[in-house]
């Protein structure tokens, strides 16, 4: 029997199926499956592969020094890249439409050009004149960046082959169109083909390539997730529309640490670097209020203080609401369950809202104790003592587990004028750095000490 052809492709995760269905079995998203034409026939395959050459690792090490990185001189960007741009690397910058990706990359293009790289900025979304206008607005009109407005992948590759830039920026991968692929631009096959061609170009020619990818929740166009595994580095540009803060986060980096963040602020004149994010995230904090707790977190290699806000109110619904912004909802459910079963503090019949201020997203389990403190503080309507930071992981038994980099967390807190830290006992003895440490071994003693319950 002939194998069924897989022509229905999930536009979110790229899984292929032989027939249409409303929900993708691969990623669980709804209405993301669309029909796509397979790749057109290429040249007949050779029975035997072409020449391949293997070298021993030691040969490589002796003959080839690691290629030097180029720093853009924008510290927030350089740090996220792992210290600068690596030649021949492929980088994907993903983010919601309108978040500021084009602005960031135009500024990056200018910065790299001023550091001596030959940079081409290819825009598939805007005409060169529009890009130039934007550059003028950003005060970058005199930067030695070459612009091209093009969507045909073949033309782009020819241009890049002729120009041989050190860095090519392609904005965006969803507007690229490969003429040997039957489906529409933005579909999974097109996005994959474009990413593959551009990545191969980077590897073959030694140019670094930065691709922009829009993230879409409704699955209208293929998301960057389908190209994540092809590239060396994946950065996400995040932020809330209502806030001016933008966070560039590395989620994958073959040449540096993942989970590093760079913080920017969107201003009338483009993105400005934020060198002290803790001060920025805490700047909107007023007097100590019930439900508000400052968490001393670590993002990548850097300590960042953020404010957690909780609200607990009697619920009019039979199924109380649990709403989280900036943290993991299932982790919240776990903390509520531990508070209930280990400390005897019920949240049944109460709506619970938790928000990380400033549009920041936290993924560290070290925030557990700060979340529990915010929930309790809101529930008991009692503010934590002022100038207090909280951090620590909570286990299902209600024990508090020490977390990494306690010393850095304390130092950052002290720098910003905090005097007390509530944290787990044990672990590598953390020096107080002049802070008063209130160390506890389990959640019950925390509840007793802090809230007298
Ligand atoms: P843009 O970089 O076009 O977003 P993306 O490429 O991710 O779709 O940024 C769009 C938003 O940024 C737009 O709403 C206007 C705002 N913006 C500023 O606030 N200041 C500026 O200097 C620029 C260029 C844009
Ligand atoms: Mg754009």
From TrEMBL:
InterPro entries: AAA+_ATPase, DNA_repair_RadA, P-loop_NTPase, RecA_ATP-bd, Ribosomal_Su5_D2-typ_SF, Ribsml_uS5_D2-typ_fold_subgr, Rubredoxin_2. It comes from the Bacteria. Belongs to the RecA family. RadA subfamily. The middle region has homology to RecA with ATPase motifs including the RadA KNRFG motif, while the C-terminus is homologous to Lon protease. A motif (RadA KNRFG motif) lies at residues 252-256. Keywords: ATP-binding, DNA damage, DNA repair, DNA-binding, Hydrolase, Metal-binding, Nucleotide-binding, Stress response, Zinc, Zinc-finger. Residues 66-215 form the RecA family profile domain. SMART domains: AAA. Residues 351-453 are annotated as: Lon-protease-like. ATP binds at residues 95-102. This is DNA repair protein RadA. DNA-dependent ATPase involved in processing of recombination intermediates, plays a role in repairing DNA breaks. Stimulates the branch migration of RecA-mediated strand transfer reactions, allowing the 3' invading strand to extend heteroduplex DNA faster. Binds ssDNA in the presence of ADP but not other nucleotides, has ATPase activity that is stimulated by ssDNA and various branched DNA structures, but inhibited by SSB. Does not have RecA's homology-searching function.
């Amino acid at each position: 029997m002939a194998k069924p052809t897989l022509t229905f492709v999930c536009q979110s995760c790229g899984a292929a199926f032989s027939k249409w269905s409303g929900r993708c079995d691969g990623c669980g998203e709804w209405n993301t499956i669309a029909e796509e034409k397979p790749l057109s026939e290429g040249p007949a395959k050779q029975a035997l592969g072409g020449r391949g050459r293997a070298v021993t690792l030691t040969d490589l090490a002796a003959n080839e020094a690691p290629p030097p990185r180029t720093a853009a001189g924008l510290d927030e960007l350089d740090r996220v890249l792992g210290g600068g741009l690596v030649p021949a690397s492929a980088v994907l910058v993903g983010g919601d439409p309108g978040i500021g990706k084009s602005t960031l990359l135009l500024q990056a293009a200018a910065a790299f050009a001023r550091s001596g790289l030959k940079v081409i900025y290819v825009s598939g979304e805007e005409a060169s004149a529009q890009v130039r206008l934007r550059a003028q607005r950003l005060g970058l009109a005199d930067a030695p960046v070459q612009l091209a407005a093009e969507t045909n992948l073949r033309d782009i590759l020819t241009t890049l082959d002729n120009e041989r830039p050190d860095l090519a920026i392609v904005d965006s991968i969803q507007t690229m169109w490969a003429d040997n692929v039957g489906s529409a631009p933005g579909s999974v096959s097109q996005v994959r083909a474009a990413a593959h061609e551009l990545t191969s170009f980077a590897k073959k020619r030694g140019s670094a390539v930065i691709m922009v990818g829009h993230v879409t929740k409704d699955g209208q166009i293929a998301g960057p997730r389908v190209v994540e595994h092809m590239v060396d580095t994946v950065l996400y540009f995040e932020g809330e529309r209502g806030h001016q803060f933008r966070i560039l986060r590395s989620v994958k980096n073959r040449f540096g640490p993942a989970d590093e963040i760079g913080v920017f602020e969107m201003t009338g004149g483009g993105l400005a670097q934020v060198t002290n994010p803790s001060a920025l995230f805490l700047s909107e904090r007023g007097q100590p209020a019930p439900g508000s707790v400052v968490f001393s977190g670590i993002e990548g290699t850097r300590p960042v203080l953020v404010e957690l806000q909780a609200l607990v109110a009697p619920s009019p619904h039979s199924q109380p609401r649990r709403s989280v912004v900036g943290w993991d909802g299932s982790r919240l459910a776990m903390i509520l369950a531990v508070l209930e079963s280990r400390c005897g503090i019920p949240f049944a019949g109460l709506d619970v809202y938790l928000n990380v201020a400033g549009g920041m997203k936290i993924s560290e389990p070290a925030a557990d104790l700060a979340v529990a403190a915010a929930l309790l503080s809101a529930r008991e309507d009692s503010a934590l003592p002022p100038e207090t930071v909280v951090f620590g992981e909570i286990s299902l038994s209600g024990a508090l587990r020490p977390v990494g980099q306690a010393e850095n967390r304390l130092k950052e807190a002290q720098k910003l004028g905090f005097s007390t830290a509530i944290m787990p006992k044990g672990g590598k003895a953390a020096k107080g750095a002049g802070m008063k440490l209130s160390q506890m071994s389990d959640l019950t003693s925390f509840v007793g000490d802090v809230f007298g319950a």
